[in-house]
Amino acid sequence: MKKIGLFYSFNTNKTAKNAEKIKKAFGTSAEVESVNVEEVDEEIFLAYDNLILGVPTWFDGELPNYWDEFMPAVEDLKLKGKTVALFGLGDQVGYPENFVDAIGLLAIALEERGAKVIGLTSPEGYKYEKSRALRDGKFLGLALDIENQAGLSNERIEAWVEQLKKEFK
Predict the structure, then answer these.
(1) Is 106 helix (H, G, I), strand (E, B) or coil?
(2) How far apart are the first and last CA of the chain?
(3) 56 and 15 in contact (C-beta within 8 Å)?
(4) How far apart are CA 151 and CA 148, in angstroms?
(5) Overall domain count for the chain
(6) How far apart are CA 94 and CA 147, in angstroms?
């Protein structure tokens, strides 16, 4: 398996903690390098063929500032040959109308530039009204709700990483 770039903000507590759990779950089966998305540029982003992106949903379905600021650069990239898995944090009780929307926002932007999105997961076990991260009955990545379902996060991460080990090439 090719080296994986794990992109997330090092300055977030919850996303960073879950990113480290994802990295640890890979064990020795893959080389996973953590990359601070707040310091990323196009060259660093393009240096990886396999990427995992961590993105919490802010407010009413928005990308966090650090991803939003990088999006103009993403819009100019050609991502054919890149394989991307997404994980995101959301609050299905407090924000049921846009649960983990940021996963969907990033997935769509990356697919439009040629990237292949993997790591789709079932929405079973979640209670929300709407999500831009949902397509054909699947989330476009791993949805984590540590506000309301923290006890399920480790199990979900372990299962997702096992799935990624098969889907990443």
Answers:
(1) helix
(2) 5
(3) yes
(4) 9
(5) 1
(6) 9
| Tokens of residue 94, six digits | 């407090």
Average pLDDT of every residue of the chain: 96
Residue 30 domain boundaries: 4-167
Nearest to 147 by CA among 100, 78, 80, 105: 100
pLDDT tens for 47-84 read: 999 999 999 999 999 999 999 999 999 999 999 999 99
3-state SS assignment for residue 89: strand
Other CB atoms within a 10 A radius of the CB of residue 113 amount to 15
CATH number for 155: 3.40.50.360
Nearest to 15 by CA among 72, 50, 54: 54
pTM listed for this prediction: 0.96
- Nearest one of 3, 68, 79, 73 to 34, comparing CA atoms: 3
Owner of token pair 């998305």: 37
Tokens standing for residue 104:
């969907």
- Residue 72: count other Cβ atoms within 10 Å of its Cβ: 8
